[in-house]
Amino acid sequence: MLFTSYGFLGFLAVLFLLYYIIPRKCQWGLLLGAGYLFYFLAGAEYVPYLLVTTVTIWFAACRIEDNADRQAAYLKEHRAELSKEEKKAYKDRQKKVRLGWILGGILLNIGILAVLKYTNFAIANINGLLGAFGRTGRLSFLTLALPLGISFYTFQAVGYLIDVYRGTVRAQRNPFRFALFVSFFPQLVQGPISRFGDLAESLYGEHRFDGKTVSFGLQRILWGYFKKMVIADRMLVGVNAIIGDTDAYHGAYVLVGMFFYALELYADFTGGIDITIGIAQTLGITLQENFQRPFFSKSLKEYWRRWHISMGTWFRDYIFYPISVCKFMQKFNKFSRRHFGEKVGKRLPVYLSSFVVWFATGIWHGASWNFIAWGLGNWAVLMVSETLEPLYARFHQRFGAGGRGYAAFEVARTFLLVSMLRTFDCYRSVPVTFRMFGSLFTARNWNILWDGSLLCLGLTALDYGILAMGTFVLVSVSLIQRKGSVRERIAAKPYPLRFALWYGLFLAVLLAGAYGIGYDASQFIYNQF
Predict the structure, then answer these.
(1) What's the start-to-end Cα distance of the chain, in Å?
(2) CA atoms within 13 Å, Cβ hemisphere of 127
(3) What is d(CA 90, CA 71) in angstroms, rounded to the nearest whole number?
(4) H or E element, residue 464
(5) Is 403 exposed, middle or buried (0-12, 13-18, 19+ CB in 10 A)?
(6) What number of H helices and E strands is found in the chain?
(7) For position 332, what pLDDT does the model report?
(8) Cβ neighbours of residue 84 closer than 8 Å, sequence gap 6 or more
(9) What tens digit of pLDDT does each residue of 490-508 get?
């Protein structure tokens, strides 16, 4: 069920037709059935995992809310006869009950994710330690299926459970409606990681056919296919060639590979999100935006506010903030201020909380040390930047750094930094990544940038022309987006121009999309996460 497959397009066409024919009160039920059919076709053996997460999180959330409601009713009924100490003791007992339910739900589901995703990683590291100490025995690897989108639906469900525990949202009492929230098929592939409070109203609502909404949704889908098939899958050929033969492709090729991979990942991931949001929009459902022109960022901190927004806010709200205010961190805060002074001491808890978040972010992306190194690399740069922020401010004030020229420099610097850090993701080996990055300064083969050597990467001159044109279109659209919705601006144009633009984009996907031998009509990169 690739988004780019004919089977998926047929599945989507049938669903869309039925969705607006059946009674509107049945629409959410059709989406639930479609979600489980989509997941079954992706792999029948994955369905039990999705069911376990759905049932356990739904049950735990209902129990938590029931306990909170009973507590509120009991305190209201007995407020005149209970002393402050009795009220406090009662609240503490009930809080422990709710805490037990939320910890049980989180540990079970994060545990399932950890076992399926990280068991063999742990075994590999244990075997490595055994070998380092001269032991000959080795643990055998396990054959474990990693369900489609498990990281996304697990985080979405766990976020919902935490929100119910905090009282941010009311628990969904209908188990089938909650099952739709977990299994809404467009976002199963690669997100975004939705919040129940943001999605529930439009997900369960009754939707009439609206020509403009459906048209805008289809346009968003088409734009996603353009990114994926014209740019990402074509660029994938060059990326695979460079990372597949590190002996032949080193030095300047590494720089080319960095930029190729940055463009491929952006077009692939944002293209998939465009298709997801577009599908939802054709059904009258609103999903949150997951990107805000990240490559226009002037710092790494700003970049992470604009890239994969739903993941970043999930880690911030459900890991960083809870760790920052936990009892251990409060004690550590006092200890560090007392022993290292106010200036240094107040930063250490932030560094430690951020370290946990970025370690978790890295390993969430994949069960290997290269992803951990990538996460901690981001952490190190962000912490250094935050520490030196007063110095940057004085520099800007003294030298008057500003204007479009300096802003362009900051954007280019951030893009280069992000691309450098992504080499850990690209090469998938920490030692190889350092070796290849080091070759940038030792190989002295910069002539490959102009002597035609890049044509040996499996890409023809025509391919480079298409990629250049596609990149120009991407940048142009991003620039226009700063002034508002591109689709709204196009909709205001005369019909012949609108038709020419969208039909031209359709032809670009049809004629310039990466098909056939030599190209990989591949699954989206973030599926693996």
Answers:
(1) 17
(2) 11
(3) 8
(4) helix 461-481
(5) exposed
(6) 23, 0
(7) 87
(8) none
(9) 999 999 999 999 999 999 9
For 321-345, the DSSP string reads HHHHHSHHHHHHHHHHHHHHHHHHH
Q: What is the C-alpha to C-alpha distance for residues 88 and 94, in angstroms, rounded to an integer?
A: 10
CB burial readout 142-151, b (16+ within 10 A) else e = eeeebbbbbb
The amino acid that residue 213 corresponds to is T
Q: Are 120 and 367 in contact (CB under 8 A)?
A: yes
CB 213 within 8 A of CB 32: no
pLDDT confidence of residue 181: 97
Residue 448 DSSP code: G
Q: What is the mean pLDDT of residues 153-171?
A: 96
Q: What is the pLDDT of residues 36-86, one digit of tens each?
A: 999 998 889 999 999 999 999 999 999 999 999 999 999 988 888 888 888
Smallest CA-to-CA distance from 529 within 369, 371, 314, 373 is with 371
Q: What is the model's pLDDT at position 517?
A: 43
**By the 8 A CB rule, do 435 and 385 touch?**
no
Q: Which two tokens stand for residue 373?
A: 């190194």
Question: What would the pLDDT profile of 504-526 be if each residue is shown by its tens digit?
Answer: 999 999 888 877 544 444 556 55
Mean pLDDT of the chain: 90
Query: Cα separation of 312 and 471, whole Å?
Result: 26
**What are the tens digits of pLDDT across the range 341-370?**
888 888 898 899 999 999 999 999 988 999
Q: Which of 26-35, 62-71, 391-400, 432-441 has the lowest mean pLDDT?
A: 391-400
**For the purposes of burial, counting CB atoms within 10 Å of the CB of 189, is it exposed (0-12), middle (13-18) or buried (19 or more)?**
buried
Q: Which three-class secondary structure string do you get for 484-525?
A: CCHHHHHHCCCHHHHHHHHHHHHHHHHHHCCCCCCCCCCCCH
- For residues 162 and 141, the answer to whether their CB atoms sit within 8 Å is no
CA gap 281, 220 in Å, rounded = 9
Measured between alpha carbons, how far is 262 from 268 in angstroms, rounded to an integer? 10
How far is 514 from 520, CA to CA, in rounded Å?
8
Q: Measured between alpha carbons, how far is 422 from 437 in angstroms, rounded to an integer? A: 11
- Helix (H) / strand (E) element for 279: namely helix 252-282
Return the percent helix, strand and coil in the chain, to nearest 5.
Answer: 75, 0, 25
**351 vs 371: CA distance, rounded Å:** 19
